[in-house]
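Exam revision sheet. Question 4 asks you to relate a sequence to its structure. Input first:
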Amino acid sequence: MKILLAIDDSPHSRSAVESMRQRPWPQETVVRILSVVQPIPPFATELWYAPNVDITAWETEMDKRANALVTRVAATLQPAGLATEEIVRTGDPRMAIVHEASEWRADLIVLGSHGYTGIQRLLLGSVAQYVVSHADCSVEVVRERRA
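Answer key, structure tokens:
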């Protein structure tokens, strides 16, 4: 079984990782851990421009953090007997997740939900909703339990 686990550094993704770690999976399961780094839009760099801010260095740091994140998550899943692959992509997370799953021919996508509703969802969009609507394979959306 091929599972694409899409993560960011949020509590919602941690819930998805924990769900993956606790469940039994078929013996030959491979989990591709994907984190997507969104590039800083050109118009935003003009608005935020300050002579002492190095946008390239900032983007490099975001990429470095994403790589560290997928490595940490792989170390969490391997003791559960899951084979892992680590990958970081740059782009729109919604499209990158769907594209990666399609290209890799994943059987399942697992991701956490931020739980946006109303105006937040309208302004920020919903990665989970987009992935569910556009993926070629099954999608599991893990929701963080509320107190």
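Marking note for examiners. Helices lie at 11-22, 42-47, 55-77, 93-104, 118-124, 127-134.
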